[in-house]
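Ticket 4471: requesting a sanity check on a complex prediction with S-adenosylmethionine. Repro inputs:
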Amino acid sequence: MEDTYKHKGLRKQLVEEIKRKGIEDERVISAIGKIPRHFFFEKIFDIHAYEDKAFPIEAGQTISQPYTVAFQTELLEVKPGDKTLEIGTGSGYQAAVLVELGADVYTIEYQKKLYQKVIRFLPNLGYQPHMYHGDGSKGLPRFAPYDGIIVTAGAPAVPEALIDQLKVGGRLVIPVGDDKRQSMLLIKKISDHEVEKESYNHFSFVPLRGEQGWSP
Ligand code: SAM
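Returned structure tokens:
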């Protein structure tokens, strides 16, 4: 697939749109402006890649809305070198944004079909996060602790394991609610036993599955 002038123009318009909607972090804006989102779409749908909307991908899942990707990433406050866990690799787009910000990215996907696709696709695009297949509702304890954890599927509650796998000073960004609507929670780990929470409305994600999610 090519990144034509038309795609670049549409991407610029998308960037302006997410800025209008309140995204301010220049590094996040520049990552969204750089990554050809249409590469993450089937060619026949590439025209939809620069609409600020979620879009269906394989296995009944979605690539998140660009504004939502930017909002979650902004809350995460990623610094270069931060060990960052993403739960819900999906298309790989959010992982690419995190790599662009200089994070050391670990990402885990529940659906084998998506995992098998992304392990070939992202390196071909030049992005090399550490990619795993499995139930991320329990985190990825093997590589913990993390500076940041971002969950890109809607959870019924905050899994305790994710807070355990954060460093003190780390941030967890997770949508929590029912199967239709969620609030975006930002959880800052202040000490081994203390967290601070902020909540932002309203988002709509596919459900987090697995042991600490909605269902296996
Ligand atoms: N970050 C993705 C992107 O940029 O395309 C968004 C993907 S979609 C909104 C959420 C993803 O979370 C889906 O691919 C889904 O299969 C995955 N998922 C759901 N439950 C999961 C779990 N327990 N562990 C890992 N991934 C999970």
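Notes from triage: The radius of gyration is 16 Å. Leaving this open until the requester confirms.
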